Amino acid sequence: MTASYSPFRDGPWRHLGDRDIWHSLLVAALAVVLSGGLLWVYVFLRTVHLARVAPVRPRAAATLLLFGKRLEAGAVDADYVARLTRVLTLVRERPCTLLLLGGHTGGGLSEAAAALQWLQERGLPEDADVRCEDASTDTLENLRNARDLLGPDVTVQVALISSRYHLPRCLMLARSLGLNAEIVAAESRLRWSASLFVRLALEASYCLWLGVGQRWARLIGHRRMVDRVT
After folding, report:
1. Segment 125-148, tens digit of pLDDT
2. Which structural domains are found in the chain, ordered by start?
3. Quick check: helix, strand or coil at residue 129?
4. Model pTM?
């Protein structure tokens, strides 16, 4: 029997006992305070800009990376359906390689397996080149495992497909891992709502933490911290 998902055991919150995490969080918080909050505002505006201008088709990439999302009672939610619908459209338009990313965040199917099932039920071409990565539980692990799946093709251009609010973090992490990436939005445009504002604020905070933490680790020569996101 599959154990139920716990964010403190299986998700990103499992890292909260890590001293490197607290080190980088403290430095990032100090940078925000010393800037009078302007640094966070800058990163937030940049996050909003990237989310707003993200295209709905890749410019050149023929390898698509679809980011999973936690399943609700074993089923895909509205955000995940939007991502899957975008991928299905792209796969039908031209030949490509599709990597479905996402491990187990609950009992039953992994996010990647649920995505494959949804696509097959809605007419995924039988000759589509699809691979599933179902050993990860967060965005960084998604991309690390995708990089491993690409193998010798790690330098090939890839399209990161996700919800608009999620794309800035995906792009930042992909570049940090050395992937040649572009972003593709699930939704046709950015539709403002209170929940979207909160999500963008959280994503901006994550991007700020990651960016400041990386720069600080390189400045002080902290190899272990740098290796966490490269």
Report:
1. 988 999 999 888 889 999 999 998
2. 55-185 (3.40.50.620)
3. strand
4. 0.89
